[in-house]
């Protein structure tokens, strides 16, 4: 009974240690540049320009590449597209994310910086629109959820080969390909610059 209790205690300790190691393996970074609220607010002030377009993505290959001729998956209705003013703070955030972000490292912007954004929702064709923008540089980003397809091969039988005397020689496996769907999500983004007040930018995100 004592031995069983000790084993259970050791197992619990081992699980806690694994959790501790996992948590400490996840690195979190924030930009160190000063976030200028006034600059961000001024960049998001009303103007007469418009950015509109369509949000879509493609299923990545096993190497993480989106094929040029791959099928497009358009953003579902109600998908959020975010627009941020490209301030010096945001530039550092973006460069850090591009350089460091991976499965074990995440780069976040501060809560204050994240507040200075504008959001639009896609329609049933994946289209979105941002209106009343000033000239300036903006960054647009969205997460597109879609159903991807994959396949695997499974042996479903064999073909036996015999010689001219009817003696068995060898067998060749028969494989069939099976397809299945799974949920996936890609981050799509783009920098857009408005150079003149009243300009209309048509983009693909």
Written description of the protein model:
- With 205 residues, this protein is an alpha+beta fold.
- 24% of the residues lie in helices and 46% in strands.
- The strands form 4 sheets. The chain has a 4-stranded antiparallel beta sheet with strand order 7-5-9-10, with no helix packed on it. It has a 3-stranded mixed beta sheet with strand order 8-2-11, with no helix packed on it.
- A hairpin with a 5-residue loop joins strand 9 and strand 10.
- The N and C termini lie far apart (63 Å).
- 16% of the residues are buried.
- About 3% of the residues have low confidence.
- Average pLDDT number: 87
- Which structural category do the helix and sheet elements fall into? alpha+beta
N→C terminal distance: 63 Å
Q: What's the alpha carbon Rg, rounded to whole Å?
A: 26 Å
Q: Using DSSP, what is the number of strands?
A: 11
The H/E string reads: HEHEEEEHEHEEEEE
Order of strands, widest sheet: 7-5-9-10
What coarse outline follows from CA principal-axis ratios?
elongated
From the structure above, extract its key features.
alpha+beta; 46% strand; 4 helices; 3-stranded mixed sheet; 205 residues; 24% helix; 4-stranded antiparallel sheet
How is this fold's topology laid out?
Elements lengths: L1 H24 L1 E3 L7 H7 L5 E6 L1 E3 L13 E3 L5 E6 L2 H13 L4 E3 L3 H5 L2 E4 L5 E7 L2 E27 L5 E27 L5 E5 L1
Parallel strand pairs: 1-6, 2-11
Antiparallel strand pairs: 2-8, 3-4, 5-7, 5-9, 9-10
């Amino acid at each position: 009974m004592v031995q069983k209790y000790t084993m259970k205690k050791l197992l619990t300790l081992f699980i806690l240690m694994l959790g501790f190691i996992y948590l400490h393996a996840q690195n979190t970074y924030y930009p160190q540049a000063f976030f200028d609220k006034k600059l961000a607010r001024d960049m998001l002030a009303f103007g007469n320009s418009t950015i509109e377009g369509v949000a879509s993505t493609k299923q990545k290959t096993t190497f993480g590449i989106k094929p040029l001729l791959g099928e497009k998956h358009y953003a579902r209705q109600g998908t959020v597209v975010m627009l941020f003013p490209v301030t010096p703070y945001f530039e550092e955030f973006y460069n850090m994310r591009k350089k460091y972000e991976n499965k074990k490292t995440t780069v976040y912007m501060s809560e204050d910086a994240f507040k200075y954004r504008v959001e639009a929702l896609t329609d049933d064709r994946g289209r979105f629109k941002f209106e009343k923008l000033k000239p300036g540089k903006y960054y647009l980003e969205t997460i597109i959820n879609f159903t991807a397809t994959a396949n695997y091969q499974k042996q479903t039988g064999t073909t036996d080969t015999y010689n001219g005397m009817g003696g068995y020689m060898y067998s060749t496996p028969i494989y069939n390909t099976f397809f299945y769907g799974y949920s996936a999500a890609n981050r799509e983004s783009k920098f857009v610059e408005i150079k003149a007040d009243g300009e209309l930018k048509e983009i693909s995100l």
